[in-house]
Amino acid sequence: MAIEANGKTFETDEEGYLTNLAEWEPAVADAMAAEDDLPLTDEHWEILNFLREYYEEYQIAPAVRVLTKAVGKRLGKEKGNSKYLYALFPYGPGKQACRFAGLPKPTGCI
Amino acid sequence: MSILHTVNKSPFEKSSMDSCLAYANEGSAVLMYEDGIYGAIKGTAVADKISASSGVKFYVLGPDLKARGVAEDKVVDGIEIVDYAKFVSLAAENDKVQAWV
Amino acid sequence: MSEQIKKFMYVNRRAPYGTIYAWESLEVVLIGAAFDQDVSLAFIDDGVYQLIKGQDTAEVEMKNFSPTYQALGDYDVTKLFVEKESLEERGLTLEDLMPLTYEDEDDDWAEKDSIRLVSRAELADIMDEQDVFFSF
After folding, report:
1. What is the total count of domains within chain B?
2. Would you say residue A108 lies in a domain?
3. A&C contacts, CB < 8 Å
4. pLDDT at B33 > cutoff 80
5. Element holding C133 (H helix, E strand)
6. CA distance linking residue C66 with residue B71, whole number of Å
7. What is the mean pLDDT of the segment spanning C37-60?
């Protein structure tokens, strides 16, 4: 599978996650979001950037409950809850947001 | 007839390093790489055996030391830290290679 | 999920990059953390090598997963038992290991050390108290 963004082709796995995480650029997130009919706002980007920083630091995509807790600590309680995160990413802040952010599927997500 | 012995297993898990040391005669070379590099750390029973092996030249692969977080100052004195190019030239310089896998 | 909390211990006895065991163990720990059990990790024999600080795998072109141990606290995995004798036999001390910490929810989020240096005899007693082992 593959996705087109910014005039380039990016290889993805059978679930739509980038095969080569190093290739990621913001246009990839926009292209994936467009396929899901979900225009990305600043609120989405705040979470995507947070996920990329988390991956950079720990080399893993966090589980949803870990993401929720970490977001709450960094971005405030009103954002660190699953209601807020699922409203932004209806297919799951773990699976969908990690995919947009160019991360692998979170460890432990089925 | 010089032999290059290579060891890529941890000396604390497998007997590869012990066998290698038992077979390494004077004039031969021993290169530790991958998990074999743990044999090059100072202050262990393996380090004592290396220091007691007279006439054998010891080498350890730098990139594998770095990957495993073993600082150069933890390496037994007298063991030469080498890169991949030197690994290749060691294999070429010696008549044959015995890999203690 | 389950009525009773069990004591799970992951026993790590392999060096990090020569085989896949260390990374597999870490992944299972992170997945298993969702089950709210009383989890601890033991690092004995070559397993102590997993925690050496300053790992840099750029030249060997492998994934450096040592930063992931820092995330264990976020997953409420806060008990990492490192066996003293295994360290000593390998020419290592606690100073050679990554400092790993967690924030204690029950103590005003105070930062605490996750690594607990224990003797072989102490770890044997701790193992006696466990319900289940996962061996890597």
Report:
1. 1
2. no
3. 33
4. yes
5. strand C132-135
6. 16
7. 97
Q: What is the mean pLDDT of residues B67-72?
A: 98
Predicted local distance difference test score (pLDDT) of residue A108: 61
Q: Report the predicted TM-score, pTM, of the whole model to 2 decimal places.
A: 0.90
Q: What angle do CA C90, C60, B62 make, to 5 degrees?
A: 55
Provide the Cα torsion B39, B42, B47, B53; round to 10°: 110
Distance from CA of C67 to the nearest CA of A (A): 5
Cβ-Cβ contacts under 8 Å, C27 against chain A: 107
- Residue of A62, A60, A103 lying closest to C65 (CA atoms): A60
Interface test mutation site (partner B, options C45, C46, C62, C97, max chain B beta carbons within 10 A): C46
To the nearest 10°, report the CA torsion of C33, C46, C102, A63: -30
Which of chain A's residues have a Cβ under 8 Å away from the Cβ of C33? 63, 108
Q: Are residues B32 and B25 in contact, defined by beta-carbon separation less than 8 angstroms?
A: no
Q: How many structural domains compose chain A?
A: 1
Cα separation of A15 and C92, whole Å? Answer: 43
- Chains sharing 3 or more CB pairs under 8 A with chain B: C
Number of residues written out for chain A: 110
Distance from the Cα of B60 to chain C's closest Cα (Å) equals: 14
The single-letter DSSP state of residue B97 is E
Task: Give the pairing of strands B80-82 and C80-83.
Answer: unpaired
Interface ipTM? 0.92
Domain range for B92: 3-100
Place of tokens 């030469």: B80
Chain A residues 60-79 within an 8 A CB cutoff of chain C: 60, 62-63, 65-66, 69-70
Residue A63 CA to residue A58 CA, distance in Å, equals 12
Domains and CATH numbers, chain C: 7-135 (3.40.1260.10)
